[in-house]
């Protein structure tokens, strides 16, 4: 098990790990995804473990169900206890993102996961994450 500085959510049974420095918009993006039906797994710190051929995300027990919302403080929300990761999202500014990027990957616990860069404050950010999760799920699913 490893602990990473990242927020994680579950979308349609698939985990999304959102990475970025403090103040980069991890919790804000998670909140917008949750507004569209996603569920929080962990905010700011996520435990990752390997289960066979997948990486599983969980919240550390002390922060399970807690989300920091700028302007409101720390609030208790409905959450999932765990989900297998399908996507890693690295937050960055829009001008640093390639228009047509080559496929990118992140590695955790000896396994490779699809990765994308995203400006979390773009209006389309949550839609892009959902599209990427569904694309990754389709690519992983057996034919």
UniProtKB/TrEMBL annotation:
The keyword Acetylation does not apply. It comes from the Bacteria. Pfam families: Hpr_kinase_C (PF07475). The keyword Transport does not apply. GO terms for biological process: regulation of carbohydrate metabolic process. SUPFAM superfamilies: PEP carboxykinase-like. One of its GO terms (molecular function) is phosphorelay sensor kinase activity. This is Serine/threonine protein kinase.
